[in-house]
Amino acid sequence: MSFSLQSLRGAAPRSSTLAGILFMLAAITIFSLVNVFSKVMVATYPPAQLFFIRGFAAIATLMPFLARDNFAAVRHVPRPGLQVLRMAMSVADGMLFFTAIKYIPLADATTCYLAAPIFVTAFSAIFLREQVGWRRWTAVVVGFVGVIIALRPTGAAISWPALIALAGCLCQSVFMIVTRYVRGTSSFFLAMTQVVGSFVFGGIVSAFIFLPPTWLIVVLLLISGTVNVVAVLCLNRSLILAPASVVAPFQYTMIVWAVVLGFLVFGDVPSLNTIIGATVVACAGIYIFLRERAVMHREPEPNPPTAV
């Protein structure tokens, strides 16, 4: 089953929009936890090798869900060309991010990636014809300013690893837009294509560059892969339920997690700039959430998209 382009241009049901926001918040929380672990791992092991081991665990986790309906989601795939593009963007995003955090602090890489809501909001207005009002644009820009205040990018922010992170940010933005286009696809199939792409790419590269990990590292990576599947499912569900331009700004909450996890895991005490910036980011996200809830109560829920 696929959806017409006209249906994609219609507003998402308001009751689904808030659920989409909550799923995005859950995804960002889990991704933030996994990123801390990944930062530790890439200091020793090649990113592709981590992709390979994590991908194996993720595939094993998703396979029973696809087998429930005798793999019907695999046999009836809407928009196969976009599915391939989406998978490629997911692999590129992950590899570029892992490569970047190997050479620059996680905070600097996060700064680059938090430009994604700007790209997504712009792409949503251009390609998805989503209505992006001045209030949402303002909240997005304010959130990004908060990120800059919090992280105070140093000279490392304009280095070649930072440019790699920016390239990954662009890939992530395209990935989110394409996910919105193929929202009629099974959530489990969407997640499977992402992890299969990472598994295959990681396996090919690891055949040439492989460092034998300890069994403890293997177990931790397998757990990480399974946990990452939950985040992927939350992210995909978010983009299915709500317009990309609405949920994308909530990626700014990554900076809040960077402050919390940096203190708990690495003992980093946040500076005044970080606290002020994180507060600005949180306020921007809360404003969008409250704005959508207010609109939901004022406007009648539109008709759902028509399948073709």
TrEMBL record:
Where exactly are the transmembrane stretches of this chain?
Answer: 21-42, 48-67, 110-128, 137-154, 160-182, 189-209, 215-235, 247-266, 272-290
Going by the entry's taxonomy, the superkingdom of the source organism is recorded as: Bacteria
- Per UniProt, residues of the EamA domain are 19-151, 160-289
Query: What's in the keyword line of the UniProt record?
Result: Membrane, Transmembrane, Transmembrane helix
What do the Gene Ontology cellular component annotations say?
membrane
User: InterPro entries recorded for this chain?
Assistant: EamA_dom, EmrE-like
Q: Which PANTHER family match?
A: ACYL-MALONYL CONDENSING ENZYME-RELATED, BLR4310 PROTEIN
Q: What is this protein called?
A: EamA domain-containing protein
> From what organism does this protein derive?
Afipia broomeae ATCC 49717
